[in-house]
Amino acid sequence: MTILDKIIERKKEEVAAAKLRISLDRLKDTSFFGRPTYSLKESINNKSGIIAEFKRQSPSKGIINNNAQPLEVVSAYENFGASGISILTDHDFFGGNLNDVMDVRNEITIPILRKDFMIDEYQFYEAKSIGADVVLLIASCLSPDQVQEFTELAHQLKMEVLLEIHTEDELKHFNSEIDLVGINNRNLKDFKVDLQHSVALKNQLPKGVLSVAESGIYNLKDFQFLKEKGFDGFLMGEYFMKNTDPAKAFEEFASQI
After folding, report:
1. Nearest in space to 116 (alpha carbons), one of 27, 34, 208, 11
2. How many beta carbons lie within 10 A of that of residue 17, not counting itself?
3. CB 41 within 8 A of CB 180
4. Residue 189's pLDDT is what?
5. In the chain, pLDDT over 90 holds for what percent of residues?
């Protein structure tokens, strides 16, 4: 069983427990549920293109930064030109939680991506209820039909969709309703990084589709390479979060691009 398989099995248990704990009606009654959402597509086109991530840990790296505070970090990300914020909400494998989104939602005015393993309709209502503007759909966890259904649901809830792919076979998960396509430079099964592989996949996307390079961007050279190859957005987390002061790390990086 791969790490991804373990994550999905645990996620099924989490969602089942959440459904018993908080009903859909209660989710729809939260203060964030009716708020207008921000567009990540528009923000990527108008700003740096960087979707800066708040992430405490990962299965491949272990603890990255357990001391950083969400509001302090994401406020700096916004101040220094991030197009959007990605916040991990998976607890067991990434050390995140739903409160990390709720605690910062009213303090920033750029889109928030709820980054999690979305496998059930319930999670989309949950994402809306905590103030997310965008949800992540991971092709390796879903069928093309599920991607279509979840995209339609997200749009009904006025949220955008970032579809993450890593293999050529996963290109079939794309549909014309998808807002952005993220290409993961890191293989979720063995965690190897291959930027050239991502470029090859990007070149097979339909023209006009906003593309986001995800993970494994370790330095300014990687960023510039991917930008030159036509990527519109860049989801970066570990590069900043591994520093004792992620806000300062982002400021320094942003000043060079």
Report:
1. 11
2. 10
3. yes
4. 66
5. 86
Instruction: Annotate 60-115 with three-state secondary structure.
Output: CCEECCCCCCHHHHHHHHHHCCCCEEEEECCCCCCCCCCHHHHHHHCCCCCCEEEE
The predicted model scores a pTM of 0.95
Res 59: pLDDT: 83
Angle (CA) 80-81-85 rounded to 5° is 100
pLDDT in tens, 191-247: 777 899 899 999 999 999 999 999 888 899 999 999 999 999 999 988 999 999 999
Token pair listed for 116: 């999690």
The whole-number pLDDT of residue 144 equals 98
Distance CA 171, CA 205 (A): 8
3 state SS of 164: strand
| Under 8 Å between Cβ of 114 and 134 | yes
3-state helix, strand, coil in the chain (%, to 5): 45, 20, 40
Nearest 5°: the CA angle 39, 55, 152 is 35
Q: Please choose, from the candidates 102, 70, 85, the residue with its C-alpha nearest in 3D space to the C-alpha of residue 38.
A: 85
The DSSP secondary-structure symbol of 203 reads: T
Residue 212 vs residues 66, 182, 248, 249: alpha-carbon distances, Å: 27, 4, 23, 21
* Structural contact between residues 46 and 142, judged by C-beta atoms closer than 8 angstroms: no
Statement: residue 176 has pLDDT above 90? yes
